[in-house]
Each structure stands twice: as structure tokens, then as C-alpha cells.
Write a structure and sequence with these properties.
With about 500 residues, the chain is mostly helical. The protein contains 20 helices and three strands. The protein starts with a helix and ends with a helix. About 45% of the residues are buried. Its cofactor is Zn(2+).
Length: about 500
Amino acid sequence: MSAYDELMAFTRETEALASVAGRTGWDQETMMPAGAAEMRGEEMAALESVLHARRGDPRIGGWLDAAEAPDEVGAAQLRLIRRSHARATKVPARLAVELARVTSVAQGEWAAARRGEDWAGFAPRLAQIVALKQEEGAALAAGGDAYDALLQDYEPGTTAAEIATLFDALRPPLVDLRARILDSAATAPKLSGEFDEAAQMALSEKLAAAFGYDFTRGRIDKAVHPFSSGSGTDVRITTRTDPADPFNCFYSTIHEVGHATYEQKVDPAYLLTPLGAGASMGVHESQSRIYENQLGRSRAFTTWLFHRMQESFGDLRIGGPEEFFAAVNRVHSGFIRTEADEVHYNLHVMLRFDLERALIAGDLAVADLPGAWNDRFAADFGVAVDKPSNGVLQDVHWSVGLFGYFPTYALGNVYAGCLHQALRRDIPDLDAQMEEGDLSAALDWLARNLQRHGSRFEPRDTIARACGTEPGAEPLLAYLEEKFAAIYAL
């Protein structure tokens, strides 16, 4: 075997083990009994110890020095293996294992604290996680910015300064649009009533199928915080139900299907290699957001959904498809990021980006986090946070150590705006198809132009290749202005 072949064989085994670790994480959030948390922490730590050792194996350096890429795909494989190896050699094994153990246990503790509104009980654990992530960021940065170093795990090639510049461009138009909507005399109806949770799950499965989810390679379960897990031939999603709010279930499902079908549509030749997953979390989020919003909340698709909901739940007390479209896109200053409308969503993300950046820099103490969160939320949303589960305890991310993840949500929205503009250019009769519940043309376009490539290209290049232009904020802002100006008669 050549050095390249030996390296790829070794890497496939590592990817297979990482897949097992991912499945273990999925089980922890869906099926694992609560009493197993401590043992699961030890199991996750053991898996991470093996994975960290393999990713930092000294033989990889020798193989990389000797390997010759057989083609452009091979060159991309080597680029990602080199990046992974460099990261693993910078982070001490002790630290990697401790992070895996602590964050595994913390996940259950966060869920309990969220249920019990117990910020004080969870704060010491979060302080421990922040300290570990600061140490990890410093090891990766080697004298540079620790937050930038952590960000590379989610959006390679991007810096916090670049993200801050993008957010500075987004924030004023979003705040202005929000103000004009809330000052408008026009209103959007709010769905009301009780909606059977079993019926929600049944319609959720129909929606997943409509958006191309392959149930022979996946399944839907419930979780406190919806997520997607896995790649290739085993990609699972979760959703949640609320008898008073079926949109929470339906759009959580569509969102996670966007993530899942991205993984399912990656070229099968890349399975169990570094190319066999999404290019970045920002690109991943572009798929979940375009599925959920530009497609799923469009006037055309909500016309189809309106009739399906009538079949499932009877009279919705909504005047018709046009009122239903407005109800789906109703703008309001809610507490919860995952339930936020498109106008408010990025403001939620910007809040978290600034706070987690300050935490990693040491400019904000964990003890002061609720106050900082509540002050910022009141300033941006005009509402006082009433309890921790609506504020600092609402998201799972920090409890599992995902510092640097949050800004990719807004990046995903920006990328989705660019993709939607290009998709509309190439499929002029898209609305007529979606009114019939037929999303195949849009899904085929995304699969062909983006999803099949997996991680072959760098994130921004992945978007630029699909769109034919470099990504920017303008298409997203234009889309939001056009959509909500129509709904609220601005």
C-alpha cells in the first residue's frame, strides 16, 4: 500500500469510531436512563481518549509527508487530515478526555437545571467547562486568540473579527425592520387551540418525507433540544411537541431534516472519510435554514401545509392560506431562539456570540452571565427575562462545550439567503411546484450544487460554487424586507 492508502485506511477506522461516539451521544439525549449519566460520562471519556490518540498518532505525520494525492479529491482528504492532526497534537490528551467526561455529565445536569430553573446549581459546572475551554483555546491558538481557535472547529477559515463585522452590517437593518413591523397597524394571526401530540408527530413524518428525508437511513425521536446526529447511512433527527404550538414541532422537524438530508446526500464515495460530512456548521445551517424558512415558511409551501393541518386537526380558526402564511411568519419578541421568527432570530445569535466571546476572553465571569444576558436581552428585545429557562439556561450548547458554534447559525442564514437567490434564479416556477407539496426541484438543486460535495471545499468556497457569487448579507436582508413588508403592509 502507498502512504496515501495506508493513511486513508487508518482514517476510515478513526471515522468509524467517531461515528460510534456520535451514536452514543444520540442515545444520551433520547433513550438513555437518567441514572446512567455518570457511567456514560466515563464511556464518552474512554472513547475520546481513543479518538484523540488516533488523531494525534505520530504515524499520521509520516504518512502526510510521504503521501501523494491521486487527484483533487485526494488532495482535499489530505488537507482535512492535516488540519485534524495539527489540532490533536496541540491539545493534551488529558484535557481532551476531561472535556469529554465533564460535558457528558453536564448535559444531564443542564437539563435538570433547566427544568428546575436552577441557575445557581448549574453555574459551578459551567464555570468548570468555561475554564476547560479557555485552556483548550489557548492550546490551539498557540499565542493567538483563543476564541478564534475554538471557532475553527465549526467554521474553518473564519475569525471572530470577520463575524463581528458581518453582524455589525446585519444588526441595524434587522433592528429597523423589527421596529417598523412592531409599529405597523397590520397584525398577523396567532394559531390557538390544542393540537394532539401524536397527530403532530404523524404530520411531522409527512413533512420530513416531503423534504427528502430517507427513513431507511434515519429515524425521528423526541428530545428537549432538537438536533440531528450521524452521517452517511445512519442520520437521525429529533423534534419536540407542544400541544399549544404545533409549529414548534413542524419547523423543528424541517430544520433538522435540512441538516440530515445534507449528510444523506453527500457522495457515497466519501463515506467514513473526512469529506463525508458537511463543510462547516455555517454551511450545515444554511441547509437547515433554507429548508425551514425560505422553503418551509414560503407562501407557496404554507398553502400546502394549511390543507394538511386541516386534515390532521380540523378547523384551525384561520381564514385561509393567506392568513395561515401570516400566522406561520408572525413576528413577536419571544424569549426562545429556536422558536424565534426570521426577523428576531439573528439578534438571538448575536447576543450569544458576544457573551461567549467575552467568557472565553475572561472579560465576563460565569457568575455575572445571567445579568449580562438579561440586560442585553432587554436592550435588544424590549422584554425582561422572567426565568433562567427563558434566558441563560435555554440552550444546551455551553453545557456540552460548544463555544464558537453559535455564530454559525447567523452565518447559515446569510448563506441560505445567497442560496435562495440562486435557486430562484435557476427554478423560476418553484412556487407552483411547492403549492402542490413538491419540493423535488429545490432539493435536487441543493443536492447537486452543494450537498454532494460534503467537505471537499472550504466553507465560503462551497457557497460561492453553488451560487456563482461570493456570499454576503445583501440577499438575506432583501429577502426579509420583501417578505415582511408584504405581510405587515410596510
